[in-house]
Amino acid sequence: MKKVVLSDSEEKVIDRLLASGVGESPEQIIKLSLHLLDEHETKLSALRADARAAMDEIEDGDLITPKSIEDTKAEYRARRKQHLSSQ
């Protein structure tokens, strides 16, 4: 396993997190940090893909217009009203 050299400020962050009870050891803090970073990157990647897809739709002219939003709201209200009346 490779050893990691931390700066003084990074060591202070780990010390602060240990003191606040976030982890029981520097290794645990680093593992948690890596897990959170990986989770963040996964979510960010999904958001980027969604943004690319949205931009493609915009470029293709597939925009949601205010009229279509109002139609969607009306359809939702009608379905909800029907669902509530059937209970």
| Quaternary structure classification | single chain
Number of strands: 0
Level of helix content? Answer: over 70%
- Helix/strand class: mainly alpha
Radius of gyration, CA atoms, in whole angstroms:
24 Å
Q: What low-confidence regions span 5 or more consecutive residues with pLDDT below 50?
A: none
Report the sheet-strand fraction.
Answer: under 5%
Principal-axes shape call: elongated
Largest sheet: none
Question: Roughly how many Å apart are the termini?
Answer: 62 Å
Domains counted in the coordinates: how many? Answer: 1
Number of distinct helices? 3
The average pLDDT value, as a whole number, equals 89
Order of helices and strands: HHH
Please specify the SSE layout and strand pairing.
Blueprint: H1 8-19, H2 26-59, H3 66-85
Report what the structure shows.
It is elongated, with a radius of gyration of 24 Å. The chain has 3 helices and no strands. It starts with 7 loop residues before the first helix and ends with a helix. It is 76% helix and 0% strand. It has one domain. The protein is mainly α.
Give a quick rundown of the structure.
By secondary structure, this protein is an all-alpha fold.
Question: Top keywords for this entry?
Answer:
3 helices; 87 residues; 76% helix; mainly alpha; single chain
